[in-house]
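Dig into my protein:

:::
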Amino acid sequence: MFGSNKKIIYGIIIAMAVITLLNYATSDGAILGLLLTIPGVLIAITFHEFAHAYAADKLGDDTPRRQGRLSLNPKDHIDPLGILMLLFVHIGWGKPVQVNPRNYDRRFSMEKADAIVSVAGPLMNFILAIFLTLVYCAIVKFAPASFYLATAGQVTLAIIFNAIIVNVGLGVFNLIPLPPLDGSKVFLPILPSKAKYWFIDNQQIFYIIFLALWVTGLAGRFISPIISTMATQILNLGRLIFGL
């Protein structure tokens, strides 16, 4: 995802992870919370990258299929840097799915096909968040009180709840319209021609802007309210459907 800058960013993430772990070590329940988040992270990243691969395959590009990316096995999609980011900073990614736009069929232009492939990942995360919300609310509504009040039930609900938040977060984060995120390709087809060419010619500038926003934490501060609002609305929808 970050090419030649990856070593620098790995160093930053490792430092952030060490600091976060030290903070967790002095906070009651923080390590447990981290452990309960891991399943949601694996699910979110795996389905996100699978969706990219599936969309590309359906549009005629067999590159993801040949590279073994049409899989729901987490090991095929996990990027160590991205998973560290999701766990410790709550913004992250998986191993990028490689596509060859020249292989797309001609139902859509290359640009539009690229946008469809790009939006498939975030869209999958939002669908998963809704599905998991329905599962969460169904357990609360129909499971015996002895289950969801017991330790096993509380752990199950915590894992599902965290997975909802992670999926919403991953979906929102990747729709930021800055390279190298999905949003930079999703919104490209709707830009006026002059703005589109200017954006393409100056992608390196936007890349630097993204890195600055990410390293300083401003990206997280900007999208956190959006993630919180969206997750709350999805949970409210689930509660409404199940009469909770």
The two ends are 42 Å apart (CA to CA). Residues 110-142 form the longest helix (33 residues). The chain is about 70% helix and 0% strand.
